[in-house]
Write a structure and sequence with these properties.
It is a single chain. The N and C termini lie far apart (106 Å). This protein is 12% helix and 46% strand. 47% of the residues are buried. The longest helix is centred in the N-terminal third of the chain and has 34 residues. The chain is elongated. It is mainly β. It has a 27-stranded parallel β-sheet that branches. The protein has a twelve-stranded parallel β-sheet with strand order 5-8-10-12-15-18-21-24-27-30-34-37.
Length: 417
Amino acid sequence: MGKRASKFLLVFVIAISLIVGYIITKDIKDNDSERKEIVDVTKTPYAADANGISDSSDAIQRAINDVSENGGGTVFLPSGTYQLKSEIFLKNNVTLQGSGKTTVIKGDFSKKGSPLITNKVTVPLKNVTLSNFRLDRTGINTQHGILLGNATNFLAEKIEVYSNEDRPGGAIGISAFDIYAKYPSKNIRVKNSTFYYTGNFGVQFGNVKSGVVENNDFYDGYREVIGVEPYGKSGIAQDIKIKGNFIFNKAVKVNGTPTGKVIITNSSGGSAKEILVQGNVIQEDVASGNSLPGIALYGVSEVEISKNAVSNLGGSGIFVTSAYGKVAEKILIDNNKVLNCSLRTNVAGISLLDTHNSVISENFVSGNKHTYGISEEKTSNQNTFKSNMLYGNKLPVQKSKYKLGSNYEDNHVELIK
């Protein structure tokens, strides 16, 4: 009886423990769901001014802090204009959401170079979403839209970032430069958004692993409309997808050295690899554009450029070269349309400089301004050119004179007569 009683008691204790555990877990889940409330910044106790007259920085910041401390949720900004005298610092598990383009956040800062939205990079930032509002970079001393570092699981979706034509800075920078680059980020997504007059950069990923820039529209940028640029010798940008974006540029006066519309580069000394640039449309105003390439790679490896349409550019449609002593290698350039490029420069539709062990296949290159449809220069070698259509170019191919050479197979050429 003693043993049976002991077994019964043990089973009873286990059963009670399971029941208590279930109740506690359910309470926690219920409390969590209660915490996921929507906080309206214009309501008490925050009372943010949606008329753009008074400073709303403190009200929005207190709402973000409270929601984060209570387990997470949504800070809602109804239609209106919200003036900021101070940057907004994001916190964990918060969605900052507006009512669309009618919700406008605009800065009026005393300090030059300020971003509208940022974070404290020494503290990890997790699970943050920004959606459905407009960031206006035209305000006093406002240089950047969003600058973040040390972020994980960040989504910017259905936002609009607007600036003056002559404004430096950029729209969204993630672990891209200065102190932000010292703190890498991962799982970063920028989707379904619109950018005007992006200045030095539209969306720039620095030391980012696993990032997506997808289905966005960019108008009238100058330097890096979309950039992947790991920062510092130990910097890494890896597993980045740039897909389905639309880019239209005209000549814009802005500070900074011009580079290209979409650039992947090791020019800061880091390592960029496993990058996909696919299904983007890149165009330029024929009358007022500049001489920059459409898609440009500098000293990178393991990059795929596929199914893009690049047209009416002053420079090459696709340009690949070395940087910081690193050649470009293992590049796949496949099934792209390069139309009417090299309008302001004496270059090729697809230009390869110091490019090794790469495949260029099934691309359509057409135009009467290209000196060459495709060119290999400097030390480019051991590349494969297969099944490309080169139509209307003055000369089809400039082959590398490097001793190892490249392979040319089944390319179709129809030259200007």
